[in-house]
From TrEMBL:
Its main location: membrane. One of its GO terms (molecular function) is proton-transporting ATP synthase activity, rotational mechanism. The chain crosses the membrane at residues 33-52, 89-114, 120-137, 182-207, 219-244. This is ATP synthase subunit a. Key component of the proton channel; it plays a direct role in the translocation of protons across the membrane. It is found in: Cell membrane; Membrane. The keyword Cell membrane applies. PANTHER family: ATP SYNTHASE SUBUNIT A (PTHR11410:SF0). Keywords: ATP synthesis, Cell membrane, CF(0), Hydrogen ion transport, Ion transport, Membrane, Transmembrane, Transmembrane helix, Transport. It holds the Pfam family ATP-synt_A. PROSITE patterns: ATPASE_A. GO terms for cellular component: plasma membrane; proton-transporting ATP synthase complex. Belongs to the ATPase A chain family.
């Protein structure tokens, strides 16, 4: 599943975390993950450029699809989380959603068979962008010291309680938020790929068995692999939506006038 289908009897060991690191294409700087990311960027640029090249009152299929994606994020995420002020963030959130969905779907596309987001580095980069954005917006609106104060100090709380609450608020707002945002996306795509890997290679292993009964049960392993592929499709879209909703929520809290 890491991009190279291997015959079961040639496997000296069962699948492992090492299968998440496909061979480099041309040295350490040109990897399969990197190529997939650039392909995703190119596909999205070409798609949206073609969709809006000649916009029509009655949209064609490409324009309709682009408008539906933008409308979903604009109305269902940006406006819901931030109100009218969220409209200006809709383009960023739409691009973020589209990019995560496409890179997640690579996990079930033959030839790719793995998502870059199953490698922790890519969710960290996506999280860093959202993390920098919502902190920058908060500082720009409130000023650095007021923003930090609003993030750490709860109003109407007896002052001795701040010795306990300030460290908790610091961890929650500046450490836990970005860590969980990245880990949620990574863990779901990692687990999904691992399940696909286990059922697919497990099917080949059972098929190569000397027992006719075990060979027959390999059919169930392949059926589970197909079922998990459809489940992975649902997870790919859902995790992209969750990532964008949380990013919008964090931006909203940084713009709020009170804690």
């Amino acid at each position: 599943m890491s991009g190279q289908l291997v015959v079961a009897q040639d496997l000296p060991w069962p699948p492992s975390v090492g299968d998440f690191y496909p061979p480099n294409v041309a040295g350490p700087w040109v990897t399969k993950f990197g190529i997939m990311v650039w392909i995703a960027v190119a596909v999205l640029i070409i798609f949206f450029m073609l969709a809006y090249r000649k916009p029509k009152l009655v949209p064609g299929r490409a324009q309709w699809a682009a408008e539906e994606v933008y409308g979903l994020i604009r109305n269902g995420v940006a406006k819901d989380q931030m109100g009218a002020a969220g409209i200006k963030f809709a383009p960023y959130l739409t691009v973020l959603f589209s990019f995560i969905v496409l890179t997640n779907l690579f996990s079930i596309i033959p030839g790719f068979q793995i998502s870059p987001n199953s490698h922790i580095a890519f969710p960290i980069v996506l999280t860093a962008v959202s993390y920098a954005m919502y902190n920058y917006i908060g500082v720009r609106k409130h000023g650095f010291f007021k923003y930090v104060k609003m993030s750490l100090i709860l109003p109407n709380v007896p002052w001795p309680m701040h010795f306990l609450l300030v460290p908790i608020e610091f961890l929650q707002n500046f450490i836990i938020r970005p860590v969980t945002l990245a880990l949620r996306l990574f863990a779901n795509m990692f687990a999904g790929h691992l399940l696909l890997l286990v059922f697919t290679i497990g099917g080949f292993v059972m098929l190569a068995s000397d027992s006719l009964f075990i060979q027959a049960t390999s059919v169930f392993s392949f059926l589970m692999a197909i079922l998990m592929a459809f489940f992975e499709l649902l997870v790919a879209v859902l995790q992209a939506y969750v990532f964008v909703v949380l990013s919008a929520n964090y931006i909203s809290t940084s713009m709020a006038d009170a804690h």
